[in-house]
Amino acid sequence: MRLALLSVLLLGVACSSDKPPMQDGPDAGRGDAGTGTDDAGSGDAGCEPLASGPGTPLLTGLNTPRRLAADETDLYIAESHSLNPQQPQPGPGRILRLPRAGGDAVSVATGFRAPDAIAVVSDSVYVLDLDGLWRVDKATGAKDARPLDATVNNVTIGGTDVLPARMGDRDVVVIATSHRRLVRVDASGGNRQELYAGTGYTQVRGARVVGQDVWFLVAAGESPGLYSVPLDGSAPATLRDGSITAGTSLEVTPTHFLVTEGGGGNGRVLRLPREGGAAEVVATDLQGPAFPVELNGTLYFKDVSTGGTGFLRRVSTCTPGALEPVGPEGVGPGGLLVDGDTLLYTSQESGTGGVVGRVP
């Protein structure tokens, strides 16, 4: 099962009640690798890495847990069960909710085929699945009768993003589909606009909202690189850095863009100054890096792995040094989320080996 899972990932680049409580955490709507909005993470403040160790399991016995999102009271987990693009409808995938104060996880919504990126707002959970973007009522778990957007078809290879945002007087959702498109729709559906549309096998990944602009990565198309586009679609997307040809994940700190790209032993992690300038290569020779975050002067990221401590790694951004594993063992990439002074992660094992944990 591990080898099968790894093969799928490389192509695209039973709950216990004795869980320890999670620490007080993020603002509502936080998703994998920060908030998905401007100034995610803690940037360069301090230079103290998290203590290495085995981590603290929060939820075990899962089947392919993928992405994470959190609000002030709960952690939400997309449990895919399978990455088979031929999954029947309804599928075995589900969204779980784990109280931040401790206690049992509960199933919020079921019937998904291969859920990937998720996001939470005050009353809803947004889920990107094989059939498109779904809205789920947080209180009842009811899904809308139809997806808000039905153009998504590449969630099995990962790299998707769902970003709640505010545009003028209305709430919107931005979707990086992984396949060709960057799309914006109203939070209640309708007013769909393509902010970017590639051709052929173009991949659109790693979106982040910065003010009233969306920054995102384009790979495998005619003009790959780091792009930005106005959230309201008032102007075409602009290529900002053409040196990033195989980008997979993007994060924004107060001072830098963090980018992962490539895989198969040639993957890299980059830091680009937001005010402009050359990219700094901070890690190389990776299998499939994803979800870079910066915390207390240390850059953390996930990597494709069938097991061991190499699925979660770090390197100092204050004093350059060797790349090292953080400590927990797991299967990657899965998800990674900054939670105050800790990290929340998934180990994307299939069967019953999947784990959601915390470092330290």
Distance between the termini: 28 Å
Mean pLDDT: 88
SSE pattern, N- to C-terminal: HEEEEEEEEEEEEEEEEEEEEEEEEEEEE
Number of domains: 1
Strand content: 35-45%
> Strand tally, please?
28
CATH architecture title: 6 Propeller
Which structural category fits the helices and strands? mainly beta
Shape: globular
Main sheet strand line-up = 1-3-4-5-6
Largest sheet: 5 strands, antiparallel
Low-confidence stretches: 1-28
Share of helical residues: under 10%
Oligomeric category: single chain
Give me the Rg, rounded.
18 Å
CATH class division: Mainly Beta
Describe the fold and architecture:
The protein is built from one helix and 28 strands. The protein has 360 residues and is mainly β. The two termini are 28 Å apart. The chain has a single domain (2-13, 28-337), classed as Neuraminidase. It has one helix at residues 2-11, and strands spanning 30-31, 56-62, 65-70, 74-79, 93-99, 106-112, 118-120, 124-129, 132-137, 161-167, 170-176, 181-186, 193-197, 203-210, 213-219, 225-230, 238-241, 247-252, 256-261, 267-273, 280-286, 290-295, 298-302, 312-316, 324-325, 336-339, 342-347, 354-359. The longest helix is centred in the first third of the chain and has 10 residues, at 2-11. It has a five-stranded antiparallel beta sheet, with no helix packed on it.
